[in-house]
Structure formats: structure tokens, C-alpha cells
From TrEMBL:
The lineage of its organism: Bacteria, Pseudomonadati, Bacteroidota, Cytophagia, Cytophagales. It comes from the Bacteria. Residues 3-166 form the N-acetyltransferase domain. This is GNAT family N-acetyltransferase. It holds the Pfam family Acetyltransf_3. InterPro entries: Acyl_CoA_acyltransferase, GNAT_dom. PROSITE patterns: GNAT.
Amino acid sequence: MPFTLRAWQPDDLPSLLRYANNPEIARFMTDQFPYPFTEEKGRGFLSMATSHSPQRIFAIDVDGQAAGGIGLHPQTDVQCKNAELGYWLAQPFWGRGIVTEAIRQTVDYGFRTFDITRIFARPYGTNIGSQRALEKAGFVLEGRFEQTLFKNGEFLDELIYAVRRRG
């Protein structure tokens, strides 16, 4: 299914609220991405997503609507050569290879744009779809921390996947 990565726009708020306000999305995200996903949260997200230069957070545009997001979060201090990758996609578009390709494009962009050598992602142990997308995009499982995260009343494993700059 064709998609594009593009900058978030203020007029993406209706599609952001429509797609992000889903407990099936929120259960795989940190509590900073809650359910319900309110208009206030949406406005805050759009303000944050459009505040960086160079751009770090992109809308995943499917058929002219923001159907998800993907972003890089460069780290600081002794982690300064790393960036964390985060993403989500609207449930109607799951299983179509969109996230895997969006990850590949974002990794290419990240290594071209930022002075980093490693991009990592931290999916929950319960998020098999995310793990598969990362693996298909060339990420390697570096570690598993058992029962370290607490989400919706249960302990979850935290996985660390990463890809390193080639050359």
C-alpha cells in the first residue's frame, strides 16, 4: 500500500484524533500516548512534532490522511551517538508492510541527517507485530529485560532492537 512520510501539519488534527484515539494503539505505546487520546493531547503532539529542526517526527500519510507517525529522538550525554525510534500506525493499515518501509526510510534519513551511529527501538514483549517490522527492516535484538515495564496493570518485557550505521 503506498504511503509517504511528510511533516505534520495543524490540519492533521482530525485524522490524528480519529486514528490515535484507539486502545489497541495505546496499549503498545508509553503512557505519554494515552487512551483516550484527547484534542488537548493531539494539539500538544502537533506542537511538539513540528518544533524541531532538522525534522525528527513525520506523519505517515496514507491516501492523503495522517494515519500514523514515526520519529527519531536523538539522545544526549554519553548516549549522544544514538537515537531512539518510535512509531505507530492506525489499526486499519496494520499488516500491509507500511511500518517496515517507514522504518527503513526513517533509518536512512536518520543516518544522513544526524551525527549518530546507532538507532534503537524498545517494543514491548507483547508487541509481536512491531518486533517483526523491526527485524524485516534490518534491526537486531540486542537485549530483553524481563518484566521491567508496568502498563495497564501488568508487567511487560522491554526489548531493545537496534541497527548500526554501515561503513
